[in-house]
Structure to design on (686 residues):
DNA sequence: TTCATTTTTTTACGCGCGTAAATTATTAAT
DNA sequence: ATTAATAATTTACGCGCGTAAAAAAATGAA
């Protein structure tokens, strides 16, 4: 009897003895009402556990509090980790994150953007597939919703881009490898989906030439996102065929390196720096599993804390200002050499 | 001029020349209107690309088309894979999946359920943390929303549970290990979060006794979900201290095994079946990375296609019938031995 | 053609909230 | 106590749709 059923904000305002518009104001910003009023509402909130109906709220607000987060592939622990970090930042900013994975396919990527359209997000953080992306459709979406790209850039799309400086990071590890042993061959996919792959390719050439070495590239075939499988299969073949012009291999990314290390192990090759080792392998990204390969993987870690933080900050600023960026901002963060056992 | 702006269902119905309620009926079930009417609406849909406002729809419908999917940790590729499979099944069933990760923490798990409450889902698929879960709160949620548990069971909570038959699967690999070499020690965490860990522990004892061997257990300390780290650190210690009563180790799960294999490698131990190998290691789960460990990991694969399919089917039946299950269904699927290089 | 059935339309109401304008009450400073 | 500033209330409307009941129209069979 003492606690009547609260069905809506009207009821809630009634039991507490103030008007509904005031309560509405409170929920949009607790500090916009008098302190004493706020206390009363908060006290009532404890007793009656009322919560505004999200659908009614979002139907009437100019902006929802939803922020979309789209990553190319959640099955990749690398992206799962980034997604988790970004999710936390979005929550801290007072927004509601919606995580979607493109599962490596452009149709799913567009389907994700379509789903997001339906919920009218205040903004979207998008790590696109890259070359495989349907750029026209992504661009159309970014024209409708404030969108910030990260990880992989699509020229001119979105309000800003945050990623890694592949030229710097690849330069870093090439220099390290050359300084401590034979210059590396570059191990990569022939038709990579990610634009970073191309930048790393070019960065490798630039670094090798700068250091006065002749670049060598091993391009392996394979489609999709099963990089470990490709690294393993093609690594096995390359080793068997004795196609290695040097004892040092720099992989375009850690997942390829993980497959390659497995292939080397199965082929009986000892990888690492110790005596008896006939091969050095390095990667790029500092994948969560690169600490547990055999041997542990020397790589370049991306500054994902900065990328995540700046991406979210930028999007939040865009959302608050309610205007589009005057010019598209492209920011690249420096990689850090992470030396482990494999090179 | 020819294509007026469509702002709502009223406008849309107007341009096509039929009434709004008919259009509304169409969107709820295209087959509920006359065939000719349906064609006309679909034709108009091409031209005007109108879509019903989700928030208005969900405010008025008795049930939303949302289905929550909560996994304990998306950073674990194992769960990321399952989540992906289940997401697809939910979409095929005509619902809208919402993926949330508990990040290994009970607070986040409850926060996830709270978020789901706000969107009034038609049903929820929950892989709970297990022992760490706040069972009272989870139970309260399952009392409000049709909930099906999978992967980890919480006694009496939810309408049904689908998981693996740990007794069978552990029995399978123990039998295999005993048949092909020395009986295994069981390598596990002292305070595991997952209830499956306990079942596997007991299953190991049962299997060993059945086969007439004395069970041995190595319990390692460590908190959280960084299983590889724990497996590596404690594996290194166990190897260094020479605490192994046999040359065969069965790990409670693949992630511990991945860490342990890395530890063995770093310690100079040769793992596998070939000559010169002094250790055998087996895991459980068929983790995506178990194909790329050195050596590749012998394990038991869970039948996750069946678990996913049956979980979704059951939830859909519950949602359609709009009544709760008369009795809680518990279904365990058989594991399959996956022999690779490590044992 | 006539009648029964199915489909569509009309009419009307409600969902739960945001928001704006005008009015009234409260607060804090003079 | 008076005044000015701030906060709360009242009133009113709108958001975009679901849905129910009754009336009208279209359909198909006899």
């Amino acid at each position: 009897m003492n606690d009547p059923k609260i069905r809506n904000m009207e009821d809630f305002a009634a039991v507490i003895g103030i008007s509904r518009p005031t309560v509405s104001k409170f929920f949009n910003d607790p500090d916009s009402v008098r302190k004493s009023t706020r206390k009363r509402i908060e006290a009532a909130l404890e007793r009656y556990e009322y919560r505004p109906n999200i659908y009614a709220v979002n139907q009437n607000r100019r902006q929802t509090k939803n922020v979309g987060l789209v990553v190319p592939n959640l099955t990749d622990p690398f992206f799962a980790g980034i997604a988790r970090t970004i999710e936390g930042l979005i929550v801290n900013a007072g927004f509601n994150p919606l995580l979607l994975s493109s599962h490596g396919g452009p149709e799913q990527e567009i389907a994700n953007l379509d789903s997001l359209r339906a919920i009218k997000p205040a903004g979207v953080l998008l790590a696109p597939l890259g070359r495989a992306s349907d750029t026209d459709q992504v661009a159309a979406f970014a024209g409708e919703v404030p969108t910030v790209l990260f990880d992989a850039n699509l020229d001119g799309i979105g309000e800003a881009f945050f990623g890694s400086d592949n030229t710097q990071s690849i330069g870093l590890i090439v220099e390290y490898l050359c300084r401590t042993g034979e210059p590396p061959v570059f191990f990569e996919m022939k038709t990579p989906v990610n634009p970073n792959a191309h930048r790393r390719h070019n960065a490798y050439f630039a670094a090798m030439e700068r250091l006065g070495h002749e670049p060598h590239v091993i391009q392996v075939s394979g489609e999709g996102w099963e990089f470990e499988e490709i690294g393993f299969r093609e690594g096995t073949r390359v080793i068997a065929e004795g196609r290695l012009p040097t004892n040092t291999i720099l992989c375009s990314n850690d997942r390829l390196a993980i497959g390659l290390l497995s292939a080397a192990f199965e082929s009986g090759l000892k990888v690492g720096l110790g005596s008896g080792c006939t091969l050095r392998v390095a990667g790029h990204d500092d994948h969560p599993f690169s600490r547990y390969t055999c041997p542990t993987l020397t790589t370049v870690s991306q500054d994902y804390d900065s990328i995540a933080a700046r991406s979210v900050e930028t999007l939040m600023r865009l959302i608050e200002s309610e205007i589009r960026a005057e010019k598209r901002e492209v920011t690249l963060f420096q990689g850090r050499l992470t030396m482990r056992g494999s090179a």
Remarks:
- The radius of gyration of chain B is 25 Å.
- Residues 18-22, 25, 33-34, 37, 56, 59-60 of chain B lie near DNA strand C (CB under 10 Å from a C1').
- The first helix of chain B runs from residue 9 to 16.
- The longest strand of chain B covers residues 66-71.
